[in-house]
Amino acid sequence: MTCREFKHAAASLTLWELRTDNGKLLDHAEECSKCGAWMDRQQMLAVSMQALQAQTAGREAGPQVERALLRMFRQEPFNTRQSAAAFRSAPVAFRLSRFFEMGAYAAAAAAVAIALFLGVRLLEQRSAMVRSQNQASPAAPAAQAPHAASMMPAKVTPEAPGPHAVAVRGARAVHPAALSARSKPADGAAAAPTSEDPDYVALMFCDPLSCSSDAQVVRMELPPAAGSSDHDAPLVADVVVGDDGVVRAMRIVN
Amino acid sequence: MLNLTDEQLLAQALAGDEDAFTVLYRRRQGPVFRFALHMSGSSHIADEVTQDVFVFLLQRGHDFDPSRGALGAYLFGVARNYVRRALERNYSEAILNSPADEEAQFLVTEDDPADGIARRQTSTALWKAVLSLPEHYREVVVLCDLQELSYAEAAEALGCAIGTIRSRLHRAHDMLGRKLRHSAATAPGGVSRVTARCAS
């Protein structure tokens, strides 16, 4: 046996096996001083290990450990019935929890979508209101400017209550052309300004979409020379003014 | 009940049989305790680890697969993890208190006082040398040399190959031999006496 074979064989043995099954190894250890020294160290280690093992062989956990474990065994639901039941019910509970979790996610997503939709609508409405308010102030002089330019300077007065003067601020005035396109019957006084009124004369052509915005009916007094044979009484006209300040239609009241 | 195997006792214990659990505990607590004691050098840690191992067995015993190895090796594997955690938790305390010195007084001595003292010194020196080994070398020494597990059983407990166990053990023996020679040189009354006695 060479030293290499000796080391290879010794490495595969435990300390205890070195002390017992080492016939060939001992022969080589007697011949080779280096391997013999190594074998002596291993045997010394084996003896020391055996002494330590023998001296700690009687060491065990204290009785308090067993008492604590038995107390836990009695108190805790360690038995198979409960744990197995819990184990079996776990997938169902898991599925239910997943179901509720997905439902919660869907509800949250729907709430976010609705909030976004309402927010966008609100922003649109507010921007439209701001736009109309911005246009309302320059619209007053502009209201009579384009279409009344041919007429004489008119005096715009707030519309007085009367049988034909219905304040419809905020109400939707529909262009007569659009109204005529619809075959919707008018009913009641509230519907009067928005209904088809043959007295109104359209001053411009506009499509129903653009003319379906809010409009105001403004009563104006026109100079008698504007077209009345009666030179003393001023002409009173109801003018439909759109959000953009453009006059859509008018009618002569008297 | 005493004739039942570990696996049968575990099955009955998990079914709620307290007697089966008691028998299993009394059969297996000693090796687990000694493994933790040899690894940590502290009986307090060994007690704690033993309790943790059997609580783990009760809670997660269903995970044990007998086809993958014996219950004893499984318990050593669990104990190894708890020892590691305990040593990480109590590292500074363990180093400062030098637990092997404390535990050495509990080593069983023989009737002859001189022989007993010599053996105790030898065992204490060896134990200190074992405790000073790196953890992966200490594990194989404790399992194979002190717990007398085979290479295959140690490989099961540590979750590594048999060749790894063999090479680690060989290297650990070399390191222990050097450490014991060093301690014998610094304390001539200790190991050198045993060496002389073994040689005679």
Can you put this structure into words, describing what you see?
The complex is a heterodimer of chains A (254) and B (200). The termini of chain A are far apart. Chain A has 254 residues and is an alpha+beta fold. Chain A has helices at residues 3-11, 15-20, 23-31, 33-55, 63-75, 80-148, 176-181; strands spanning 155-156, 201-202, 215-222, 235-242, 247-252. Helices cover 53% and strands 10% of the residues of chain A. Chain A is built from 7 helices and 5 strands. Among the domains of chain A are: 3-55, no CATH class; 141-252, no CATH class. Mean pLDDT of chain A is 69; it is low at 79-91 and 139-195. Chain B is built from 11 helices and no strands. Chain B is globular and about 55 Å long. Chain B is mostly helical and 200 residues long. Chain B has 2 domains: 1-98, Rna Polymerase Sigma Factor, Chain: A (Orthogonal Bundle); 107-200, Arc Repressor Mutant, subunit A.
